[in-house]
Fold each of these.
Amino acid sequence: MSPTTTTTEVAIVGAGPAGLMLAHLLQRAGIDSIAIDIRDRAAIESTHRAGILEQDSVRLLVESGVSERVLRDGYRHAGIDLAFGGGGHRIDFEALVGASVQLYPQTDVFVDLADARARDGGDVRFGVGDVSVADLTTDRPLLRFTDADGVPNEVGARILVGADGSRSICRHEFPEARRRQFFREYPFAWFGILCEAPPSSEELIYSHSERGFALISQRTESLQRMYSQCDPAEDVADWSDDRIWEELQARVGANGYVLKEGPITSTTVLPFRSFVQEPMRHGNLVLAGDAAHTVPPTGAKGLNLALADVRVLAEELELHLAGDDGALDRYAERALRRVWRAQHFSYWMTTMLHRLPDASDFDVRRQVGELTSIVSSTAGSTYLAEGYTGWPS
Ligand SMILES: Cc1cc2nc3c(=O)[nH]c(=O)nc-3n(C[C@H](O)[C@H](O)[C@H](O)COP(=O)(O)OP(=O)(O)OC[C@H]3O[C@@H](n4cnc5c(N)ncnc54)[C@H](O)[C@@H]3O)c2cc1C
């Protein structure tokens, strides 16, 4: 079958938060785009991931006309509890840096973005297959795919954007000699559960203990998300609900907390990885979001970085399409500055709070010393609050 051919200004591979937010911002600037995704809407909507939005992410969603629901249905959190050494210590973001974060699940961010695209007549194709990109260093790069009805498509664009997540095909199109990949693997993962229970705490609890890390987070008045540090090879089938609750209660109980329990509706093991690919531009292909970088989830930075990338990318693409030759490289430079700050913050939170499999008693006591320094110093607490709520653009 001969392909259906289309032209657009920007072709976007991946319709997650990065791809859809970019398409939305471009349309507001009068720039046409097409976004495609290998998954259908229902599959993306039911994948539970991030839950904490920095204040600039909230502002972007509201001020660009994507979501007012984020303010109405989200929960404002003005701090977190750091729990260690037998007790909890609140980091008061509001008092320290005059900022807060918003608890609003990524599934809802996606629904708002997809609804905004549908409302504004945006061209988004879900459930496509056979995706490939070509002619990246020419002035007419191509995106090829087979749509959900089995029809082959070829899109000629001025710019291609790889917003295709942590298993990106686009980043592999950068010639090996012209890319660098920076990795860190961690010898632990998170065992995540969703449970039907009332909140155990109004704000997130980051709990350090000799048994390992636990994070107590919320979703709604009746649904909660909790994580405990585990081996990356852990099999969720080995864990009964009773065993899961026993372990979570033991970890937070060491610091004086008691969790409200309820039926567990989902379990998952989430591996940890830090990754950056540089540069973020090759010819007329640019990367955004998880396609270019991933962080371990401890600092709640992944989704926020994806949104920060495309806010900058939309600005620079507008300049590029108007003839500014330096704009795409400037995007990569501006984005990477924030990416590496977030890499450091996520690494720091992760290594301060998790127990390494071969940790000695010295290592665990040293972590408690570090956490004590953070909570007993205005400078230390402010540093954490600034990073968590998000640095100014
Ligand atoms: C289980 C889990 C829990 C997480 N928890 C947190 C958290 O608590 N806090 C936080 O900040 N971050 C968290 N993250 C990270 C956060 O979800 C990501 O950083 C965020 O989704 C990045 O958005 P994105 O649009 O760049 O990528 P994605 O959301 O991954 O979107 C990429 C899209 O591209 C599509 N795609 C992939 N390949 C192709 C292809 N070849 N062609 C077309 N489309 C393609 C995918 O289907 C996907 O819809 C978590 C991630 C996971 C996996």
Amino acid sequence: MLQQTTVKAVGPYFEKFLARWPDVSALGGADLEDVLRMWAGLGYYSRARNLHACAVTVLREHGGVFPDTEEGLRKLPGIGPYTAAAIAAIAFDRQTMPVDGNIERVTTRLFRIEEALPQAKPQIQVLAATLLGPSRAGDSAQALMDLGATICTPKKPACSLCPLNEDCAARERGDQETFPRKAAKKTGALRRGAAFFVVRGDDLLVRSRPAKGLLGGMTEVPGSDWLAGQEDEEALAQAPELGGVKRWHRKLGVVTHVFTHFPLELVVYTAKVPARTRAPDGMRWVPIATLDGEALPNVMRKVVSHGLGE
Ligand code: SF4
């Protein structure tokens, strides 16, 4: 229940759920519809379906008794490697370390693991397992999770309070906040394009982007494609057909914007058209004064302020 959901939101559901289905046999014998009804409002309904399917499997294939090994648990519906390790350690005292994000951070700092995530995961798993005590694996895991959540935090870890500080390689070097290492984001090649800023009296020519894809359905100043290595002339050739436009005026400078996957550079061309000029198909005029009410993405706000600038 706690996946993606806070303890506060889960509390009342958890109590009602356990009051109605106090053990795995009760849940395995329940109607899926009833389980889903009880879950209503908590969201992520696949959790309820998996929980029910898991109880049914435990009841039918394991005589109502949970498998007590990691491998056995992994075969149950809805239980992945992390959950299997967590149940095996916490419920069955198996010598295994369930590695969550907190344990990942603590381990990469303690051992100064240079390899970046996610490639480092197998190494983290092996080194985290060396932190298990001789018994009570569940307690070791929960202690490390709590250490990560409260002391070895992503920013400004409270190392002076940390019971492991004397053995911490990253602390010794003073670079603990740089762990875990993360692979640098791959940014794509610079894309270039043009935006056509057409004014008719107090109106600006705009259109809506296609519903699917980048900035889907949002409003934009008409423009060319955004392509890597595109020359200005190629972009200019994609200007909208407007009878009244004799020539496009190129604004000085460019608008730059960085999307998650690529940086963009736009040249802005401006033109003024006579009153009553009709908008080309798929485009429309909006009063410049009401642009704030349009779904203009940041990159287009930059284009508008560049186009309006002297
Ligand atoms: S000494 Fe600091 S960086 Fe190292 S494990 Fe403890 S809190 Fe984390």
Amino acid sequence: MARDLEEQLVKYLTDAHAMEVQALAQMRAAPRIAGDAKLADAFSAHLAETERHEQLVRERLDAHGASPSRLEDLLGALSGKGFVLFARFNPDTPGKLATHAFSYEHLELATYDLLERVAQRAHDEETARVARTIRAEEDQMSRRLSALWDVSAAASGEDVGAYLADAHALEAQSVELLKRGRKIAGETELARLFEEHLAESEEHKRLIEARGETSRLKDAALRLGALNWGGFFASQRDTPAKLAAFAYAFEHLEIAGYEHLRRLGDPEATALADRILPEERAAAEKLYAAFEPALNASLDAVVSA
Ligand SMILES: [Fe+2]
Ligand SMILES: [Fe+2]
Ligand SMILES: [Fe+2]
């Protein structure tokens, strides 16, 4: 029914808006953590873009008679959503900042990708056009960041052990995400992808354990242990599309982490990162290809024909 689809479109717009509100806070804080002028400039440029994204999405919500409340964005609408997990990473070095931002840009890219598809189904050409425009700028920002890995790795001053420990903690979280996601995805291509990458992630975790110092690996795991997958999945249960988008962003967290690890001048660490990176990239690409079927499954579940 058209009204169900309209409701879904407003939901996707509301999520995009809440995501931009959080992005604004991140972009304002980022130049102070960047530790390098080029990296700081990339964030400043994207701050202006992000301000425009927030406004454009707000206008589309207005057009649908659904104005967002600022407070709701900051408190209610955020709770349990994927980007709350991002807020907990709390980047405090240039390397972590670039890693976090690279992943967040992919969460945004995925969100606008899905929004455009939902808008097209609802025959809302203007929202589809806005989504496409913003998506291109999120993509551009992620490319700015990936062109600066050398800079963010050098500015961080963190050693191989620190990156190994973070990578290990991420792989452990990835294993959790994939195990739970596999159940939610049901009998779908998405579930098969999760299964496949679960086996790879467990192997990555073992490879890092063979290299890292146990005590540092444990510390990093504790720091990230606050990620609440339970709350996340409780709110995402009926949306394979959002699960695919979030997993896609998570892969980019790992990709950026390994991109830094391979640039620290430690041949063994570089070899390890080069062994793992292609599998992370392939997993991300396959997840992206699964957006369309995942969205179809999500909409079929709530939109009656
Ligand atoms: Fe944005
Ligand atoms: Fe962005
Ligand atoms: Fe991964």
Amino acid sequence: MILVTGATGKLGRLVIEELLKKVPASQVVAAARNPEKAGDLAARGVQVRKADYSQPETLGPALAGVEKVLLISSSEVGKRAQQHQAVVEAARKAGVRLLAYTSVLHADRSKMALAAEHKATEEAIRASGLPYVFLRNGWYIENYTENLGPTLAHGAFMGSAGEGRIAAATRADYAAAAVAVLTGSGHENKVYELAGDTPFTMAELATEVSRQAGKTIGYNNLPPEQYQAALVGVGVPGPFAAVLVDSDVNAAQGSLDDSSGDLRRLIGRPTTPLADAVAAALKR
Ligand SMILES: NC(=O)c1ccc[n+]([C@@H]2O[C@H](COP(=O)([O-])OP(=O)(O)OC[C@H]3O[C@@H](n4cnc5c(N)ncnc54)[C@H](OP(=O)(O)O)[C@@H]3O)[C@@H](O)[C@H]2O)c1
């Protein structure tokens, strides 16, 4: 059986859908902190089990009979190293044959603040002795396209990413890579740097959105302090705004760029072009 944690999240749902194309539903376990959110999956024959990273007592039972695990990193920034450690410990006790983990691009050398918890998790996984795969996901294109309304209304993206090249890819492409690893062979103890085929700058993203939206959208590159203030001004909590600003400052230095080609190799096709992702977002 293959278990996917965070199965009710956006990436988790895409992984489950992709898995169901390849293996019978009875072989898929959707692990969720709120199992009631996965009623639709249960109705399709997927086993839904409770697994809350912050409740270690839920993790052992969730892993019973499971051979392969995809640990989707928690969204609770700041608690993640400890939460993930609990999953690693439960997976070790359960003796799983493969633990795949959605990490961050260049986790071992990235200077992004967000990378620290991923690096700690990778270290915990290696220390567990379990066969592992690190799926070091780059940025989601959807980070920019999911909520285009305010950008279109204001006529500009804002940020501090400067001219940094961002090799983002769609969640669906990262999900397909995870499923390739979970259903394929020969991935034990491999590290994949997953990123889109064609990196873009924020100005290039703005140009593509302008072209498709029929309206000029700019890129307002701000000094970090101003970007922080602007984020807080639109209601983003200060500590999270700081994380976003830090990510952009590092993106300006190339932290989100990559040309390994690992993602296209794993999914066996080119990654989804930015233009397609923008078109999908504008259609919504
Ligand atoms: N590469 C990128 O650009 C990028 C961007 C954002 C986030 N991320 C990372 O990638 C992960 C997946 O992305 P996503 O878009 O699917 O995020 P998402 O939609 O926010 O999903 C996060 C999932 O984590 C689950 N979760 C949170 N706390 C948990 C806990 N204590 N125990 C068990 N599950 C818990 C959530 O459960 P509920 O469904 O109950 O809320 C949800 O299913 C995120 O969690 C984050 O670590 C990456």
